[in-house]
Design brief:
The complex is a heterodimer of chains A (about 800) and B (about 160).
Chain A (H helix, E strand, L loop, with lengths): L9 H8 L11 H4 L16 E7 L5 E7 L1 H5 L3 E6 H4 L6 E3 L5 E3 L5 E2 L5 E7 L2 H10 L1 E6 L37 E8 L1 H10 L2 E12 L8 E7 L4 E6 L4 H12 L6 E4 L15 H13 L3 E4 L2 H7 L3 E12 L5 E11 L29 E8 L16 H19 L3 H8 L8 E2 L5 E2 L4 H11 L2 H13 L3 E10 L11 E2 L2 E2 L2 E7 L5 E5 L8 H13 L6 E5 L16 H28 L6 E4 L2 E4 L6 E3 H10 L10 E6 L8 E10 L6 E11 L6 H20 L31 E4 L17 H18 L13 H10 L7
Parallel strand pairs in A: 1-14, 12-13, 16-17, 24-25, 31-32
Antiparallel strand pairs in A: 1-7, 2-6, 2-8, 3-7, 4-5, 9-17, 10-15, 11-12, 11-14, 15-16, 18-19, 20-30, 21-22, 23-24, 23-29, 26-27, 27-28, 30-31
Chain B lengths: L3 E7 L2 E7 L5 H8 L18 E4 L2 E4 L12 E3 L12 H8 L9 H14 L5 H7 L11 H16 L1
Parallel strand pairs in B: 1-5
Antiparallel strand pairs in B: 1-2, 3-4, 3-5
Helix pairs in contact in B: 2-5
Classes of the chains: A alpha+beta (about 800), B alpha+beta (about 160).
């Protein structure tokens, strides 16, 4: 290969790489725009049967009998399984991600409405749907508990009879049969002392309603057990396929090497597809029992009713401050409604996840956080919905309480934040709750947003509108996220530490394949990981293939959620590539007959320092790695890295929102939403912006319309898209985005992760804007969702809707 | 249950199927004819990921009986590209980053195709209303709007 002609074309070579910083078009789009995506429901196997669930109409009831006869008599029905059928296999209960257990099929009693009671396996989905109607279940209704505040009353019905007398709990002592855990962080005594002596204190109760991530693809799987080879293959909607393999192996007794889990294309995850659901387990059991592939795909109503809720947190935020608004202490109390089984997605060491980060972007000297988890007759909850293990709740409570403090002191909400920010020179900064925030520059971000939006002008306009009796609100939030779980000392799932992995192979011709322990659900991994490798190895992105999601080929990894792909998987990618480059340098030295120290790296080649024209490109080196290498060196050019991050990463942002509220109808118009994010090094700005748009839209949905309420009998109200609010093109505001760049000091390329920030940051911003519209009338807080009916009721209470 | 023999044009080619009277068109397309681009998301006509084009109109194939397509013309995402290459709406979705997980995308494209046939020069407001039967959870819609605008321009120039 002759490269003499391109000795001086480094800038051009860099362009061809499409490396870090390039808005490279997505590789994955080609299949999706032609209908060639491969989602779980697209998987078809010869002889495949279809499973459907019999579900409980009651929220709390004892199962007196189950009669399968009529269902089994229906032509095309192959099996009807209940908890009694799973008992001999010890699969009628399964471990949850939070140290609890959950009934796979209701075992003697049901704990929430639509709980799985039996599974029918039939020739096709129509026959299965017919058959579930023929399974006769006799129930005896029991008293229902839906109010988390009453869960620990003396006369509250005992929900989890399997736990009676077991007061140790997975995370702490339990103090009541319906208590799950008490978890505390910080210094309670010191915090209480500051509150007693503080010049100013504020206290705000708030409820973060139960919502649902509801990706457009529901959950499902195709399980296929090969009886001859004792090999189990499962295609599954999972954000964490390797962990699923480990758990399936542990539960079934099939060696892990004979279990293959494949996450093909996933139609949106948002945290919803981290956990293991009964449908997955029963499909696997049915395939083992029947010896043929079994598919289970839930419908939307099943998904909204039973598959991992988020939030449902009753929170109280308190701040002690001086009269100038400088924070002296923070106190947060939370009652967490986790439903009937604690299926919360958490790193096991934190029962309420990273609510630890509730000190936010502020220099808080002392703080205390107290969380109690309780059982109710609702579906198992606590999924980390587009956030890192409850950081959404943490940001909401601190940002809302900061606004209340600003209001009480008559200080502008931008100014009070500026006064309390951790300063740029204080990083790395250790918070009162024990986290080391790696980097940040909050003042710059805030100032940039205030200027871009003409904050002063908006405040003047608001004043004029108030004089005319119109309702205009300005929301402002400055948040710090904690993502990239995580250091294995802090984070594990069922005992498996949360590292991640990359395996990179450079072929003789210089094309590359990399396999990852993460799994994309729309984040564009195929595109961005290739950009990291391109920059590290000097090989064009277009010649780099990325594969994920197949446990037979990918190295072990903990998956994609909690914005961990770039902070952990991306770091593994960079480190693995650097291992390859180090070997390449040795080969280059051999080829150029110089010592390694005489070489310098330049975009895509090693050059001999000070000798123009003496150089070897990465492609030449790749060829040589297989054919002409130093004596004693093993052939090949590949590396694997299992990366255990030294710390989390801490992206941050400043969001501003302007709303106009119609005082006769309560209808809100979001006039402006400006989001500035700092996610450190930006790998693909196009993809980053796209993810921010999507996160903002989901935040808009949560703040302005979503809730899943229950009546007193535990009936879930609104579990179809007729009732559950998912914004369409029409309601959705126009998003404006901006950025600053503060690289993470410990990440190999300085990247922090971004896709959750817009969700975490936007939700309190909307509430801040809505409350701001009424703040001159004494309103300090309004609970979500801020739909027109609820706002209209508030307007009525304030007597604002009278026509003069 | 007695089955009906139906035939229709799918993406310009004649197809036949034996279907139960209650069988939904989306299942005929996905299970019987084995085209996977048309997806199932809600089964109540709300999310739009099953949208196909039937006799020149966008329909939700998850709540339409297969027998209703008998004798008709059906277009799915698989029929958008031609021998000359991708359709302008497909190109535009890639160029403007109008997709992420890709689950809503095939139906979004089929709807955009029909919408631009009906309204070749739409305003942003018209795009928002015209596309509002199709939900997306990933993109926040903004880049899809840009893609539809961009495709409209390209189609007008063609």
């Amino acid at each position: 290969m002759d490269n003499a002609n391109d000795a001086n074309n480094a800038p051009e070579a860099e362009d061809q790489l499409k490396g870090v910083g390039c808005s490279r078009k997505r590789k994955e789009d080609a299949r999706f725009i032609q209908g060639k995506g491969n989602y779980v429901d697209d998987i078809k196997m010869p002889g495949m049967l279809f499973a459907d669930m019999v579900r409980s109409p009651y929220a709390h009831a004892r199962i007196k009998s189950i009669n399968k006869e009529k269902a089994l008599a229906l032509p095309g029905v192959h099996a009807v399984l209940t908890a009694d059928d799973l008992k001999p296999l010890n699969l009628h209960w399964m471990p949850t991600l939070a140290g609890d257990v959950q009934a796979v099929l209701a075992d003697e009693k049901v704990h929430f409405q639509y709980q799985e009671v039996a599974v029918v396996v039939a020739d096709n989905r129509y026959i299965a749907a017919d058959a579930i109607e023929l399974v006769e279940v006799e129930y005896e209704e029991l008293p229902v508990l839906v109010d988390a505040h009453k869960a620990m009353d003396e006369d509250a019905p005992v929900l989890r009879e399997d736990l009676v007398g077991k007061m140790d709990g997975a995370h702490s002592k339990r103090v009541h049969d319906n208590h799950i855990f008490n978890w505390q962080a910080g210094d309670k005594d010191a915090t209480d002392r500051v509150f007693e002596q503080a010049e100013v204190t504020v206290k705000q109760d708030m409820y973060y309603p139960r919502v649902h991530p509801s990706p457009l693809e529901t959950c499902g799987c195709v399980a296929s057990f090969d009886k001859v080879n004792e090999h189990l293959t499962v295609y599954i909607t999972s954000q964490a396929p390797h962990v699923v393999r480990t758990v399936v192996s542990m539960l079934s007794g099939i060696p892990e090497s004979k279990v293959r889990i494949v996450s093909p294309d996933i139609g949106g995850g948002f945290g919803n597809k981290v956990g293991v659901y009964p449908g997955y387990v029963v499909s696997i059991v049915a395939s083992i029992v029947l010896g043929v592939p079994v598919k289970w795909v839930e419908n939307r109503m099943e998904h909204l009713s039973t598959t991992a809720f988020a939030r449902d947190y009753h929170m109280t935020g308190e701040i002690a401050a001086d009269s100038e608004g400088h924070i002296k202490a923070l106190r947060v109390n939370v009652l967490a409604d986790h439903g009937a089984f604690d299926a919360c997605a958490d790193p096991s060491k934190f029962p309420a996840g990273l609510m630890h980060i509730c000190t936010g972007s502020y220099d808080v000297p002392v703080a205390h956080l107290n969380v109690d988890g309780v059982y109710t007759n609702k579906a198992p909850g606590g999924v980390a919905y587009r956030c890192s293990f409850r950081v959404t709740e943490a940001v909401y409570v601190i940002e809302r309480t900061m606004d209340v403090l600003a209001q009480k002191l008559g200080i502008d909400k931008a100014e009070i934040r500026r006064r309390n920010f951790i300063k740029a020179e204080q990083f790395p900064y250790e918070t009162a709750l024990g986290w080391e925030i790696d980097s940040g520059d909050y003042h710059t971000a805030l100032d940039k947003v205030l200027e871009a939006c003409d904050y002063e002008g908006l405040r003047r306009e608001q004043q004029e509108k108030r004089e005319k009796g119109e309702l205009m609100g300005i929301g402002l939030v400055t948040f710090t996220e904690i993502v990239g779980a995580g250091p294995t000392r802090n984070c594990d799932i069922l005992g498996v530490g949360m590292f991640d992995s990359a395996e990179i192979r450079v072929h003789p011709t210089g094309s590359v394949i990399a396999r990852m322990g993460t799994i994309t659900q729309g984040q564009g991994h195929q595109t961005t990981y290739a950009q990291i490798i391109a920059s590290e190895l000097g090989i064009p992105s277009d010649e780099i293939s990325i594969e994920e999601g197949d446990t037979d080929t990918a190295p072990y990894g903990l998956g994609t959620y909690g914005s961990r792909s770039t902070p952990v998987g991306g770091a593994a990618t960079a480190v693995a590539a650097r291992k390859i480059r180090a070997k390449a340098q040795k080969i280059a030295a051999h080829l150029l007959e110089v010592s390694e120290q005489d070489l310098e790296w330049d975009v895509d080649r090693f050059k001999v320092k000070g000798v123009p024209g003496q150089e070897k490109t990465m492609k030449e080196i790749a060829w040589a790695a297989y054919n002409d290498r130093p004596e004693g060196m093993e052939p090949g050019l590949e590396a694997v890295d299992y990366y255990d991050p030294p710390n989390f990463t801490y992206p941050f942002g400043t969001y501003l929102c302007v709303v106009d509220i119609d005082k006769y109808t309560g209808v809100t118009k979001v006039r402006r939403f400006y989001a500035l994010d700092d996610c450190g090094t930006r790998i693909n700005p196009m993809i980053i912006e796209g993810q921010i748009h999507g996160g903002l839209n989901e935040g808009f949905a949560v703040a302005m319309g979503q809730e899943l309420p229950f009546d007193e009998q535990g009936n879930i109200l609104g579990n179809t898209l007729m009732d559950y609010f998912i914004p369409t093109f029409v309601e959705t505001p126009t998003w404006e985005t901006d950025y600053t760049v503060t690289p993470s000091p410990h990440h190999p390329i300085g990247a922090k992760g971004v896709a959750e920030s817009p969700h975490v940051g936007s939700i309190p911003t909307f509430t801040s804007a809505i409350v701001d519209a009424f703040s001159h009338l004494g309103t300090t807080h309004l609970d979500m969702p801020h739909n027109a009916y609820r706002l209209w009721k508030h307007i009525r209470e304030l007597d604002l809707d009278k026509r003069s | 249950m007695a089955k009906h023999h139906i035939s229709f044009n799918l993406n310009g080619k004649p197809v036949e199927a034996l279907v139960e009277p209650r069988e939904l068109l989306v299942h005929t397309i996905r299970e019987n004819i084995q085209l996977t681009g048309t997806h199932i998301g809600c089964e109540t006509s709300h999310c739009g990921v099953c949208t196909v084009d039937l006799n020149g109109k966008s329909v939700k194939s998850c709540t339409l009986l297969a027998v209703q397509a008998d004798g008709g013309d059906v277009l799915t995402v698989e029929g958008l590209a031609s021998a000359e290459g991708l359709h302008a709406v497909q190109q535009a979705f890639v160029e403007e980053h109008g997709l992420q997980c890709g689950f809503c995308t095939p139906a979004m494209l089929v709807r955009a195709y029909r919408f631009l046939q009906d309204n070749p020069d739409p305003s942003e407001e018209e795009i928002r209303w015209g596309m509002s039967g199709n939900l997306c959870r990933c993109t926040g819609y903004q880049n899809i709007i840009k893609a539809v605008q961009s495709a409209a321009k390209k189609l007008q120039q063609a």
